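Title: Prediction job returns without error message
Component: structure pipeline
Severity: low
Priority: P3
Assignee: unassigned

Description:
Job completed but the reporter wants confirmation the result is attached to the right record. Sequence as submitted:
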Amino acid sequence: RLRRPLNLLNASLIIQIMTTNFVSHLEMIRILTKKGNYNSGFSAVGVSSIAAHIGSAGVAAYAASKAAMEAATRCLAKELFKKKIRVNTVVCGQINTEAYDSFMETKTDADNILDRQFLGLGTSQDVSDIILFLLSDKSRFISGASIPADGGYLI
């Protein structure tokens, strides 16, 4: 995720971040939910971030884009249920990826982000297991939800 303090943001960068994280999510769902493009029981899952729920310096545009995705998820769940389409979001905490490694290079020992994520660093498998569950019929009674995959961070 791109860390940019307010004084280094500009409209072009904000639009780029919103397009990447929010507009693309809406556009994907819009296209996939057109008549003939989906089967009954279709489920869409977005990937959000704890940044949408906590305040952190330098990530205002990123956090706003993920919060917009989550708000749209709730709206789309109500809009698309008549088509038997479910929409949910997975809210990721710190996940062991190259992006996480790059992010941690900018932190000091005092900034240990995992102090709050008491179940430890997540894996891509942790996130994909939740996504697979939300795509399956086992989650047929869940729609409009933002499911945390955050190792307890948001508690």
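Comment from assignee: result matches the submitted record. The first helix runs from residue 11 to 32.
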